[in-house]
Amino acid sequence: MSSEIFQIHILLKYSKPRIWRRVLVSADTLLSDFHRILQTTMGWGNCHLHQFIKDDTRFTIPSEDDLLWFDDIDYTGIKINELLLFEGDKMLYEYDFGDGWEHEIRLEKILNAATRLKHPVCLKGKRACPPEDCGGVWGYSRILEIMENPQHPDYDDTMEWIGEDFLPDYFNLDLINAALKRNNYGCFDRIFF
Predict the structure, then answer these.
(1) 7 DSSP β-pair partners
(2) Residues contacting 35, CB < 8 A, separation 6+
(3) pLDDT single digits (tens) 129-178
């Protein structure tokens, strides 16, 4: 059992302003668990397929109704310390292949701990997670532009769709850490619409 702890920086690529999180996880965390940690930490709803990409190799988990494609690797049993090997090492986490949310996963620090982490911890982050199915980074940018201009012809429809209580600058560290202590790290089972 590893007592190494990884400090990992998660950046939602192409987001402006940047949306990011910094987390502590056990180095021997399975990719299947890391997926759940990412979902909860970022604020996603686990409604879509995902994959990890390292050095042009895709790591995914096959569902009951699809097979792995070509060189895809079933990540069942693979741990993050098998992909992130040294400080500064990176991989990509892609969520929702339609919207194409790409997250840069960077190993910032390898920490030695006297005891194993009981659960992952989010140390810091900035900005709210975009809403599901909003068209990726570019669709989200358009939503932000519309939200800033109540005179925009699409303002009322956009606010009705996104919800009046959506705050793009909001980030609640305590809420995320409370969720990470729950079963499945607070992540819902995958839901398909």
Answers:
(1) 24, 109
(2) 50, 52, 93, 187
(3) 999 999 999 999 999 999 999 999 999 999 999 988 899 999 999 999 99
**Number of domains composing the chain:** 1
On whether the CB atoms of residues 23 and 10 are closer than 8 A, the answer is yes
Tokens of 176: 């995320």
Phi, psi of 26 (to 5 degrees): -65, 140
CATH of the domain at 108: 3.10.290.30
Cα within 13 Å of Cα(164), Cβ side: 1
* Structure-token match 């911890």, residue found: 121
Instruction: Pull the structure tokens for residue 114.
Output: 């006297």
Name residue 70's amino acid: F
DSSP bridge pairs for 94: 51, 102
DSSP letter assigned to residue 114: S
Domain extent at residue 106: 4-129+169-186
